[in-house]
Amino acid sequence: MLTHQARRLNSPSLFITSNDARFFPNLRISENQNNLKFDRILCDVPCSGDGTMRKNVGLWKNFHSHMGHGMHALQLDILERGFKLLKKGGRLVYSTCSFNPLENESVVAAALSRHIK
Question: pTM for the complete prediction?
Fold first, then answer.
């Protein structure tokens, strides 16, 4: 879906991957340069999906209030990797389809507390 939507941008410098973002490799253009950094990064992380309950009625059967606990560490690792790949002055967007603060505000607060002193 992201690839389909991104085609409308007609950008020659767009890079989309579906690999495990925690282990996104360092890229170099040549041996003499530092690792490639990105101007913009979208971290659309896996989540409990509780924000999709209206259209995903099957989620209601298995839902419990602690669903976000198991995702927090994974989401934080992905966000941390995004920070490492971001150019200074770049923009990173963190996205979930959850309303759970453990998967949203808590992840962002934990990442920012590591980087902002």
Answer: 0.82
Residue 97 designated active-site: yes
Q: Which domain holds residue 52?
A: 35-117
**Can you tell me the distance from the alpha carbon of 87 to that of 63, in angstroms, rounded to the nearest whole number?**
38
User: Which among 6, 74, 86, 97 is annotated as catalytic?
Assistant: 97
Give tens-digit pLDDT for 36-78: 899 999 999 988 777 777 777 776 667 666 666 788 999 999 9
Report which DSSP code applies to 9.
T
Element (H, E) at 37: none
Look at residue 29 and tell me if it is in a domain.
no
| Residues linked to residue 92 through DSSP beta bridges, in sequence order | 41
Distance (Å, rounded) from C-alpha 10 to C-alpha 26? 25
Cα separation, 36 vs 38, whole angstroms: 7
